[in-house]
């Protein structure tokens, strides 16, 4: 009755089905791992954003690498802005996807060390980004700023090429070690994305809170792959039964035709 399963067509179909089942199961497991990784990163962001602000010196120091655990932590710093050594970071976009600059201002702490403060986004002066833009001044004198602690930017992590030969006082990546060499000062690792005080005017536009990864999508993909893997054997059985039924119907028809008397 099921001798057709030994045919070349059905052997190939069965082998493909047997290969698809473990492949789909493994893809589901991989998507579940992605879900767990993204959920863990989202939890780190949530914990960091919800933590109480602490002095920046408690989480970073000169040459320190900001870890994923401390990334986005709210920190405070007291000192004065050094606008004379201010630079801008090229090709940065705001919430409206407009291209402009991030304003990076050295902030001299009361102990003489420096922390880099990203004061926010400003538009470019026209279509060209070669001219140094007009930057609103930060608060003068000693002040306290609050910001999210961020790791140094790298090409590997951001995908942004660190171009050379840029116009004066323009950079591509925020890197504390490079800025320490430029300033000839002791610079804390990483930088602050300023959240307070807010600028008096419209610019610089403070950088918004980081978004979270869509972990639920990976969870849905995992379930989808596992449903596919379960559907393969079900589909194989359905095809086998249909083939068996069609063959049985053809055999019955042929038998009926042979048993009918020949016409006179």
From TrEMBL:
Name under which the protein is recorded: SURF1-like protein
Xref: InterPro entries: Surf1/Shy1, Surf1/Surf4
Keywords, ordered alphabetically: Cell membrane, Membrane, Transmembrane, Transmembrane helix
Entry annotated with the keyword Ribosomal protein: no
Transmembrane segments: 219-240
Membrane topology per record: Multi-pass membrane protein
Key word Cell membrane present: yes
Source domain of life: Bacteria
Family statement: Belongs to the SURF1 family.
Subcellular localization: Cell membrane; Membrane
Organism: Streptomyces lincolnensis
GO terms under cellular component: plasma membrane
């Amino acid at each position: 009755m099921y001798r057709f399963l030994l045919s070349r067509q059905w052997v190939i179909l069965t082998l493909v089905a047997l290969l698809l089942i473990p492949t789909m199961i493994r893809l589901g497991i991989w998507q579940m791992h992605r879900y767990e990784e993204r959920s863990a990163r989202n939890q780190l962001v949530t914990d960091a954003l919800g933590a109480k602000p602490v002095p920046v010196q408690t989480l970073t120091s000169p040459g320190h690498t900001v870890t994923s655990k401390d990334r986005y932590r709210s920190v405070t710093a007291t000192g004065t802005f050094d606008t004379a050594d201010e630079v801008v970071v090229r090709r940065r976009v705001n919430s409206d996807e407009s291209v402009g600059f991030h304003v990076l201002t050295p902030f001299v702490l009361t102990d003489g060390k420096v922390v880099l403060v990203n004061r926010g986004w400003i538009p470019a002066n026209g279509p060209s980004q070669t001219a140094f833009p007009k930057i609103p001044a930060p608060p003068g004198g000693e002040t306290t700023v609050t910001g999210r602690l961020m790791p140094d930017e790298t090409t590997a992590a951001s995908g942004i090429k660190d171009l050379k030969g840029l116009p004066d006082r323009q950079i591509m990546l925020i890197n504390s070690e490079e800025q320490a060499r430029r300033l000839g000062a002791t610079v804390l690792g990483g930088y602050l994305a300023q959240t307070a005080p807010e600028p008096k005017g419209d610019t610089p536009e403070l950088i918004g809170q980081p978004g979270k990864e869509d972990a639920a999508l990976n969870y849905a993909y995992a379930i989808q792959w596992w449903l596919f893997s379960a559907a393969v054997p079900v589909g194989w059985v359905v095809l086998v039964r249909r083939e068996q039924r069609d063959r049985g119907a053809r055999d019955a028809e042929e038998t009926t035709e042979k048993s009918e008397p020949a016409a006179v």
